[in-house]
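Quick bug: Cytidine deaminase output formatted oddly.
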Amino acid sequence: MSEDIELFKQAREAASVAYVPYSHFPVGAALIAKNGLVFQGCNIENASFGLTNCAERTAIFKAVSSGVSEFDMIGIYGETDEPISPCGACRQVLTEFCSDDMPVWLFSKSGDVKKTTVGELLPYHFKKIT
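Here's what came back:
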């Protein structure tokens, strides 16, 4: 099985448990850590829409709260005709925990994929001061 098909399946599976009673727009993410673990995330809505959490951030926060902070790639799936793209907040969180050259694969509901990187998604991003 090819890598993109497996990543697509993992991200689509994550979307299947999304909590989206307001938008009815499930999104799933599958974040692959350098140690091989896969952290899935889905969007979780709230009646106060600003408190909604996206799939990408859910996956990253699950990983970081489990003590994992080094990642190889992420796949993001949406029930869309074209590959879905992360929001600005998710892009900034990705830049906090992932290298600029980390692959980001964006999937549509049919499995079409757009391959990009964290740095291409958010050039000139804020960087942590070390």
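Actually, after a second look the formatting is fine. The CA atoms of residues 70 and 83 lie 25 Å apart. Closing.
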